[in-house]
Every structure is written in C-alpha cells, then in structure tokens.
Structure to design on (230 residues):
C-alpha cells in the first residue's frame, strides 16, 4: 500500500493563479481531510469529507474548494492564490470503526505539499 | 486562543538522555488525546492514542500519560536517539463529530 500520496511536493505560484493539489489514498478510507501548517501554529483544518460526494468546511475554508467524486481522491483547489496561502498542506485519511466511533481512528497523513505564493 | 498548549516550544538533549514534553488542553467534551511525531519535511505519524479511561500508553521508548481531571498529558522519551529529532504534536479530539485540535508542537533536537 502506498498509503496517502500528495502531488506536487513543491509549488510556486504567482498571486492570482489557480492550481489543484492532488491527494489520493489506497486504504479505502471513508474520511479524508486537508490541513495547512504554518510556523508556530498547529495544523488547521481546511475542508473534510466523510465519503464520496460529501464534503464540508473546516476551520479555514476561504479561498479553497474541494470535491470528492471517488473514495480514493480528494483534490484541493486554490481559486486565486494569495500570499497568505503560502503554507505546507497536508492531506489525511482515516477509516470508520464499526458503530461509527470515527474519532478514535488513527489519521494517516500524506508527505505534504510546500506552496509558496509570490 | 489555542485549546491545546504545548511546552516547551523546543529543547535540545544529549543522545541517551531522557526528556518529557507537556501538553495542556481545554478541549471539551473530550474524546481522546493523540501524540504525533513529525520528521522534517514529512507528514505527522501517530505514536499513541488515549481515551478518557487510559492514563498511560507506551510505544517503544515513547510513553504517554494522561490526566483527564487536570487536562494534562505528557510524552516521555527514554534513552533518546538521534532519530528522535523531530517535532512532537499533541492532538485532542472532541466528542461528537471528532474535530481535532492541534498543538503547535515541541521541536526536539538530539545531539551526539
């Protein structure tokens, strides 16, 4: 199993450009999420999905869009990049325990995408 | 205000020595507390997960403790190795839909 994969590993954008960060997992996990990590701060949730066709906003969703057409893939789209979106982005996935106790399940993180917006 | 506070922000220890990292939280209602290890340039990797009823859990040379009454947790690293150099992140899960609150992490540097 490859686990959670993310592409690209590094990206530089100019202000106003758009792009899509890719995330895929091969563990058949229902739950997938996107976080951003900034220096001196904890990871912050951008968007999450509880299954194919279902997405919801996290703590810092502005400027980002997501979709979940398959169980495996959860791309994150930057609509019009801004310098404030310079960060390291992590995708994560987890499974659902029988009975729905999802909060106990271990989250598996991808290797991250380092994005710089000039 | 961050609901998960970690201390110290960073520390340097000699190879072979022990160290203890602290995590205080205000997250409520509490579901579980996790410790992650994040190597430079990599994603976080889970070390331990503890629920309300568990007050200690080990993973090799890592031992986590939890006092749910005082809302404090610690991560103890025994006989540190160079490979322990990393950021250690405390994460608390809320009961309900399971929102995760992340601490900012403690940066540990192990020197020869």
């Amino acid at each position: 199993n490859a686990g959670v994969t993310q592409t690209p590993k590094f990206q530089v954008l100019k202000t106003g450009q758009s792009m899509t960060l890719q995330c895929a997992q091969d563990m058949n996990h229902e739950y997938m999420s996107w976080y951003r990590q900034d220096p001196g701060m904890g990871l912050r949730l951008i968007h999450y999905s509880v299954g194919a066709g279902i997405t919801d906003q996290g703590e810092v969703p502005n400027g980002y869009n997501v979709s979940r057409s398959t169980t495996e893939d959860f791309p994150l789209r930057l609509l019009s990049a801004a310098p404030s979106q310079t960060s390291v982005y992590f995708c994560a996935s987890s499974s659902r325990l029988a009975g729905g106790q999802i909060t106990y399940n271990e989250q598996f993180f991808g290797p991250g995408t380092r994005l710089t917006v000039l | 205000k961050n609901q998960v506070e970690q201390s110290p922000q960073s520390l340097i220890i000699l190879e072979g020595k022990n160290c203890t990292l602290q995590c205080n939280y205000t997250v409520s209602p509490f579901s579980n507390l996790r410790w992650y290890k994040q190597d430079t340039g990599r994603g976080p990797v889970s070390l331990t997960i503890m629920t309300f009823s568990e007050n200690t859990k080990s993973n090799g040379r890592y031992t986590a403790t939890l006092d749910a009454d005082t809302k404090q947790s610690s991560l103890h690293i025994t006989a540190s190795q160079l490979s322990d150099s990393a950021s250690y992140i405390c994460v608390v899960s809320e009961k309900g839909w399971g929102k995760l609150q992340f601490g900012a992490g403690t940066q540990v540097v192990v020197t020869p």
Remarks:
- The first strand of chain A starts at residue 4 and ends at 7.
- The two ends of chain A are 36 Å apart (CA to CA).
